[in-house]
Design goal:
Layout: H1 6-18, H2 21-35, H3 52-56, H4 59-77, H5 82-85, H6 87-96, H7 102-119, H8 125-143
Helix pairs in contact: 1-8, 2-4, 2-7, 7-8
Length: 147
């Protein structure tokens, strides 16, 4: 089980209470699909992903990005048992969707970048540490079924 400090808990709850889920989710997923183009193979049904402009303007990408961010709410609400909270999603992504487990880490990095850009000077090293720890735990939970 992961140990969370009071600061880390408060920081994660604060970040997610202030996020614009639609904008942050869309921007994080778009960044991931543009910067790491091999991740696009899991989104063939999303239509045109041929270049950055197409990805940024794709409504399916925007919708899925928002879904991903709302999916993180489950972890925020279950910080003491993130692996348990994500057990079904881990099975879905590994056994049905066959997503490369490293993609979760790549997307986590993109989420961190977008949150940092949104928070500006408020994204201190301590806030970054808390967010990256949180996202690493979520990533490990999603990768659990792969092991």
């Amino acid at each position: 089980m992961v140990e969370w400090t009071d600061f880390e808990r408060a920081t994660i709850q604060d970040i997610f209470s202030k996020l614009d889920y639609e904008t942050t989710g869309r921007n994080a997923l778009c960044r991931c699909l543009v910067v790491y183009p091999w991740t696009q193979r899991y989104f063939a049904k999303f239509g045109n992903l041929y270049n950055a402009a197409a990805i940024m303007g794709n409504p399916n990408v925007a919708t899925h990005g928002t879904t991903i961010l709302h999916g993180l709410d489950k972890a925020v609400k279950n910080m003491d048992n993130i692996k348990g909270a994500y057990a079904e999603l881990s099975v879905l992504h590994s056994e049905k969707l066959h997503v490369d487990p490293d993609n979760f880490r790549l997307l986590s990095d993109c989420i961190t970048i977008v949150v940092a850009a949104t928070m500006g000077a408020n994204f201190t090293p301590d806030v970054q540490e808390a967010l990256q720890k949180f996202l690493a735990v979520v990533t490990a939970a999603l990768q659990k079924q792969y092991h």
